[in-house]
Amino acid sequence: MQNLNEDTITHAVIEQIAHTPNPRLKRILTSLVQHLHNFAREVELSEDELMTAIQFLTRSGQMCSDKRQEFILLSDTLGLSTLVMAMNNRKPPACTESTVFGPFHVENAPVFPLGADVANGAKGEPCFVSGVIRGVDGEPVPHARIEVWQADEDGYYDVQYAGLGKFQGRGVLCADQDGRYYFRSIVAEPYPIPHDGPVGDMLRATERHPWRPAHLHFLIKQTGYQTLITHIFRKGGTYLDSDAVFGVRSTLIADWLRHEPGRAPDGSIMEVPFYTLEYDFVLNPAKKDR
Ligand code: BEZ
Ligand code: FE
User: Which residues surround ligand 2, an ion (CB under 5 A)?
Assistant: First the structure.
């Protein structure tokens, strides 16, 4: 393995990883080396450009914390998250489509009873959300675990506020025996993804904006069904055709209806205008073990 040149280096590296015991790792690394080397050849990568890329990735790592995941943002803004999500969530057309997970989900979100206000003090116009969880034959799916999370009216998730010390605009609910779910929250608004780091630099360098259209995240789980990770987007909102992370599916766009002050779906009297959103989800059956 001496005197390697631009024609022999790729083969030499692949030979070095040929004995990787894990077959999946071997396949991924072999393909990665092949594509990475071919990419460098195709664009005739300069040494300065390689160093710029290394510095970009270094800064991305340095931006990461328990509140910030720059590599998820990078994957999202390069369309890689949507590609991988689409390949791994092929399902019958009757099922609710999946979309990107994003970096703002947290473990251990608070559990609420049906009907509760998951905003928990987050700023925004009130919104009552409801619907039914079904299977592909229309049967209600009882007692699914439903996790929701969203930004407030200023476009920030609770985890983006330093020292907030509580969960806001997120929660876990359990659908009833008829698959029904309902809760109160606030109206989702468009927001820019964090763009004060290397991903923001990339967006500016490519003259792209950082905005996402208004949406509400859902993660729905029930035994016997594939877990659904998705959002519901707000019909008529801005950025539906230019989502910075390529997540919009037209089947996930719904009407968020505005109402004048009066009786809300939970029977309470609202003294301010409020919104309602109704959306039914269809879960894909889990793959059978053979
Ligand atoms: C989100 O919707 O929370 C999100 C998705 C991708 C990147 C940034 C945010
Ligand atoms: Fe989001």
Answer: 102
